[in-house]
Amino acid sequence: MSSEAKRPKVDNDAPLQNFLRWCDSVGLELSTKVRLSKEGTVADYGMLAQDNIEEGEVLFTIPRSALLHQGTTHVSALLEREKISLASTSGWVPLLLALLYEYTTAHSHWKAYLSLWTDFKLLDHPMFWSKEERDKLLRGTGIPEAVDKDLANIQREYRDVVLPFIAKHPDIWNPCMHTLDLYTQLVAFVMAYSFQEPQEENDDDDDGEDDETEEAPTPPMMVPMADMLNHVSKHNANLEFTAETLKMVCVRPIKKGEEVFNTYGQMANWQLLHMYGFTQPHGDNTDDTADIAVANLHKAATREPDGDQPLLGEMWEVLREKGAFVFGKHGCLTDTELHATLKVLCMSREEFLEFKCNEDGWEEDDEDEGEISRGFSNDGLAGLNSKWKRLLHEAARLTVRGYPDVDRDRALMEDQASLKTLSSRERRALEVRYGQKSILDKVMVLTKT
């Protein structure tokens, strides 16, 4: 039987059919029980079951030779030879240089794969929104600050690392073609579609002590076919890594006509929008979160009637590096950090001086971690002491004040007709804002005194 006869049904989509022919040519095996389509999927390309699929079935197998990364690109030898000069904070420069080359060369081995994306800006990451639009629609969510940091890092990396390297190799790269704009688009592509090989956990050393040396994270790589699957938190397939291949395996039964979903990990809606350019509908994302900044918790303490302002000022110098406390749908996910911070904010001057002199610092707390976790779950918040509840309640209230009109968002979410009038950006921003505010509202209800 010919490869054409084996190939699963696809829509009349020339780039997609070229990609599938390429898959055949590189030995990528695709089950006849699935098909690729833009119709009937939650976003853009996706994979649909055209027969019932049982748990454990392999949906496709990808040989490692078909993966696109700095070790497989046509310019791999050069990238390896000069890897020291390509070191950067992100660790992505070698892959991005490979993509700059492969995306713009007419004879790239991955041309049929990369041709599926004619304009990476269609991924619609917030980095492609105007700053005014980000600040207006995403205020309070943490995304505008994250994007500003991303763009600054991208520009610095391109200027300080990429451009000098390109200048040394004008026969391969051209700054007129391989511009900052294209580089930024490819960063979005890597953010949205790349995978990282799971790192093997180190066994304890022979002397019984843990090995404290941290390995550098594995560099990202592009995995054709795997990146066609959309994400939901309750996924039904998972990518498995073996020595010779990568396999997408069904992890629970999928009925004919259903979409096949991979998972990008436990991702809140703000993370999905920031990194991938989409959100899950409100209520569907079981991994949604909201942050309460340590600054708001400290500000809440300064508003206590009996607050020792000079002491709280000293406490801020210790607490300011703590960042934010993360709340999920079932309680605080950073409970030990929140517990320690609340203890500090409620210390007397004598207790605080003793705390500062303690060499173990934050590690001095010997309370049971399970008890702490239960205390900061939704079931436990109401049982906290009254001052802790007041501080949490006020900190959550201050956080909610950082968002656009709360009442308007609630009215929009409850009015299907109004929702349909929103642009895709407005709708996704609303999903992020409303999801975060719902979690914070729950915290306020549970800590009301």
Describe the protein in words.
By secondary structure, this protein is α+β, with helices and mostly antiparallel strands. The protein has 19 helices and 13 strands. Strand 2 and strand 3 form a beta hairpin. The longest helix has 26 residues. It starts with a helix and ends with a helix.
How would you concisely characterize the structure shown here?
The protein has 449 residues and is an alpha+beta fold. It is built from 19 helices and 13 strands. The longest helix has 26 residues, at 143-168.
* Biggest sheet overview: 4 strands, antiparallel
The class by helix and strand makeup works out as alpha+beta
Low-confidence stretches at least 5 residues in length (pLDDT < 50)? Answer: 1-10, 205-213
Shape: globular
Gyration radius, to the nearest Å? 25 Å
Task: Count every beta strand, where a strand is a DSSP E run of 2 or more residues.
Answer: 13
Distance between the termini: 73 Å
Number of helices: 19
